[in-house]
Amino acid sequence: MSGPTEHTATLQAIGHRLRAAREQLGLNQDDFADRAGVHRSYVGMLEHGRRDFRISMLYRLAEAANLSVAALLGLEGDDESIGLPASTQPR
User: Using one digit for the tens of pLDDT, what is the confidence trace for 39-48?
Assistant: First the structure.
């Protein structure tokens, strides 16, 4: 069972991947938010690991970022392809 610290670290790692993918697409938070159908402030909170989300939102975010859900979660090992070191992968 994971504790709050591990949960927070996982949310932050997902947020880093989301931001890297958004930036790789050349989108600002407003444009990405429009693409995902969410508010810009929500994108900012997600990117900083300060907001939890539902599975359905995970799919929307992954689609908007042109990533698979597995890649957004760090399960595909392609962090390097979106400019992130492997150390951002959740344990």
Answer: 999 999 999 9
